[in-house]
Design brief:
Rossmann fold; disordered C terminus; 4-stranded antiparallel β-sheet; globular; alpha/beta; 266 residues; 28% helix; 6-stranded mixed β-sheet
């Protein structure tokens, strides 16, 4: 895919993060509950970030907010150094792709699911590439006949791989992975990890991942930086692996400092 065809995409500033959150906050107005305390976060090209924390601590809330899938109650998301305007959100989601834990597939075949994004206006400048899709599935040991399988007949692992390939074929800049292997068997989980790693290594200087995981072993495999979430507060902690992180480090500002300044204290 040629990113230059996307008129909504800001010019690349190599000194700026791919994605940056400034004071990002979320609140449940009905229950008068803070879901995400104001936090700053930056994701640079070449980084693989892992987010961990207890269930219900706000990890998915944060990642969905970063993906601009839910309305924000405070803060700004920047893309290549520029604030994302409302009109840019579809394009932003095209390049900063979110993958959920339980894949949502449409009725029809695997190929129908892979072709579906190209029916959307945001992808009108590109077209389905069968050769690329075959190469992605070949990496998981699945042949051309897999494309004819009915989506309703796929196992959970197969469905997640289809959902991931559907995203990877669109050539995103960053992947926001919301526990994509939590419900999978170990073999399927490693296949998902391998596909993500293959995608990342093809252009590692300009691509990035942010991956939510509850598995310490997986966190060590897929991340070079480790951040945590507790009770809606995003915080930094040491990297989970010995792999040397890239020169550009992801940053997480102390949430308590922004919290005090904004009056959001619980």
């Amino acid at each position: 895919m040629n990113h230059q065809n996307d008129s909504k995409r800001p010019p690349v500033d190599v000194s700026a993060p791919l994605v940056e959150a400034l004071g990002l906050a979320r609140r449940d107005a009905q229950r008068d509950q803070v879901l995400l305390q104001p936090a700053d976060f930056a994701l640079h090209g070449g980084e693989r970030v892992v987010l961990t924390g207890p269930s219900g601590s706000g990890k998915s809330v944060f990642l969905r907010a970063l993906a601009l899938l839910d309305p924000l109650d405070g803060g700004t998301v920047r893309w290549h150094g520029e604030a994302v305007a409302r009109a840019q959100i579809p394009s932003y989601r095209r390049h900063i792709a979110y993958l959920r834990q339980r894949p949502a597939l449409i009725d029809g075949s695997v190929e129908d699911n892979l072709r579906y994004p190209y029916s959307l206006a945001v992808y009108r400048d590109t077209r389905f590439d069968a050769a690329r899709v075959h190469a992605l599935f070949d990496a998981t040991g699945r042949g051309a006949d897999f494309l004819t399988r009915a989506a309703s007949e796929l196992s959970g692992g197969e469905a997640q791989i289809v959902a991931l390939v559907r995203v990877l074929q669109l050539d995103p800049e960053a992947l926001l992975l919301d526990e994509p292997t939590a419900s999978l068997d170990p073999e399927s989980a490693r296949e998902v990890e391998a596909l993500v790693e293959q995608w990342f290594e093809l252009r590692r200087e300009t691509r990035a991942t942010a991956w939510i995981s509850h598995d310490p072993a997986q966190a060590a495999r897929v991340g070079t930086r480790h951040i945590t979430m507790r009770a809606g507060v995003l915080d930094a902690s040491p990297a989970p692996s010995a792999e040397k992180p890239s020169a550009a480090q992801p940053s997480v500002a102390p949430a308590a400092t922004r919290q005090a300044a904004s009056g959001e204290a619980q």
